[in-house]
Please model this.
Amino acid sequence: MSSIFDNHPCFNKAARKTHGRVHLPVAPRCNIQCRFCDRKFDCVNESRPGVASGILSPYQALVYLDHVFAEKKNISVVGIAGPGDPFANADETMETLRLVRQQYPDILLCLATNGLGIGPYIKELANLKVSHVTLTMNAVDPEIASRIYAWVRHGKRVRQAMEGSEILLEKQSEALIQLKAHGIAVKVNSILIPGINEDHIPEVARTAASLGADIFNCIPYYPNPGSAFGHMEEPGKDLVQRVRAASAIHLPQMTHCTRCRADAVGCLGEQESPSLMAKLKACEAMPKMPDNYRPADEDSCRILSPKRPFIAVGSREGILVNQHLGEADTLLIFREKDGDFELVDTRSTPPKGGGESRWEDMAALLSDCRMLLVNGIGERPKTVLLQSGVDVAEVEGLIETALTPAFSGASLMHLKTRSIKACSGAGAGVCGA
Model:
């Protein structure tokens, strides 16, 4: 198997228990209406496409991604899979991909799309080294497709079932050819809908193979109450196996799909992390875009507001970032000046024991700070600070070493806290684990 597949758990079954993925939910709108789909944005109890606990802006998604990498050490793929279609939200999708590629140059990038709007962006996707795309093709016959899609929005017009299906199928074929011409691995998904396309799916697989697809995923229809097909039953295992066997004549089959959510994180089939879902909601509450933010294609990643010129630091002795926020009686306040860092203030933190009001007072105390660097922080104070516009990084090491990327907007991943204890004295060393 080619190395491009090795670390992608959807394209390589052997990687599904060792390599994780994270979907960034930055694309809420969709450009087609599938009769089997009912998109929800806030249901944490369902595991299926079209579901997400929150919607993030590109900037918020980058902050959230830092949290994901801090908690999950086996993430190999960052993807965008809705909860709508990435290219019904092309500006948000492309900006997110640019930001992630700048911040994490070695991570695999992935997309899941219906293919209608991807065409104009394929060249840039290749330049961004997006290596994997999943293309959902439920039919290659317009008559069958018109029974699956209620309408298609192409350009500024909404086309009804038959006309829209003809356009959609044309754009899907063009997209698949162009994706392969740019060296991008393509998985084709087909939803098996009993009584609609069960006998047609092998033809979809044959067509996809002729256009260059790498792998095929026949996904059993899942009843979604509220959709036009909500009354239909899920296909039985025998039918699924028969259709997969017929499709396998044309393309290798993915048989380990778990119908991922649009905010899925971790290994396939792994239960969603409550702490990361909380972080996603906290990031959603952050400013969507800081005042001084510039798009990624202007060589900018995370430039925060000039109205927040300072960075706060939790430190016991003034040399290291080595203090948990809850233990800090004071915070050091730094600014950048003439290429160096200047300590401009030492601020006393609000009194302990104040409950929720303590963290609200803390946010007010840091209202002119773009970021807080600490060795540890509880979930509630982090949420309050994020909601107030103060980014939070749990790091360790020399203050000066941390301030350099913090002020420039570069990644702080290499300074993320590990399982070691900082000495309680004033020295610069660390105790053993």
